[in-house]
Design goal:
221 residues, Nuclear Transport Factor 2, Chain: A, globular
């Protein structure tokens, strides 16, 4: 029997696995016997923001670090819903990749990083993303020399965003599993110099934790 606690932060659950802490929703269910692996998951072509997020979901399910690292803009940031205990409000691409490299490739962790205990290695990831809004333009992320001098130039990028409800269940090789339920905003940047079907034309620019989940009429991805 497993019990969930809400609201939860995807950011904090990944940090929990990184730092080997007990942040997030933790339970110790009686694990069932070994089940056969699911059929292979195929990545759809990335031709718009929803298919980009679908690729993100499948990268989690497959624990595919190589695919995961291709989905992000160089100036990507993950923004927490509330500051962490150490005051952290956001992190960039390097930290995001470090967290997921540890999760998806725990056998390859090299010094000076601390190894991840085998009982925290992932056995599976079950993730659901439900879009609650359509992707619409987010002009606040464009360059403005006064309000946003580090923003993206409008003549080179198109920036859109959408809110999602997310549920993620991390099954570990030990007795403790992790469940995350919450809302997220995905902001996607389209490179106008590339065709809509070209590799790297669509990239995740911002991923923001919005706190507790709420009902959504949007389609599941």
């Amino acid at each position: 029997m497993s019990r969930a606690r809400s609201p939860l932060k995807l950011a904090l659950i990944t940090v929990a696995m990184l730092a080997i802490t007990a942040t997030g929703c933790i339970f110790s269910p009686d694990k069932p016997g070994t089940t056969p692996p699911p059929p292979p998951l195929e990545y759809p072509a990335i031709v718009d923001p929803p298919t980009l997020i679908e690729n993100l979901k499948l990268a989690y399910q497959k624990r595919d670090y190589d695919k995961f690292e291709t989905l992000f803009h160089p100036d990507y940031q993950f923004r927490l819903n509330a500051p962490a205990e150490d005051g952290t409000e956001y992190w960039g691409l390097a930290e995001e990749l470090k967290i997921h490299r540890r999760m998806f490739r725990p056998a390859d962790i090299q010094p000076p990083e601390d190894p991840l205990p085998v009982e925290l290695w992932l056995s599976s990831v079950d993730i659901t993303l439900n879009g609650s809004t359509s992707f619409d333009e987010r002009p606040q992320y464009y360059f403005n020399e006064v309000t946003n001098p580090e923003g993206l130039p409008l003549d080179a990028w198109e920036v859109t965003g959408s809110d999602y409800n997310a549920t993620v269940f991390f099954e570990t090789q030990g007795d403790t599993d992790y469940r995350v339920e919450g809302r997220a905003e995905f902001v996607v940047a389209r490179d106008k110099s590339k065709s809509a079907t070209a590799p790297g034309a669509w990239l995740i620019y911002r991923w923001s934790d919005l706190g507790a989940a709420k009902p959504s009429a949007g389609p599941a991805i």
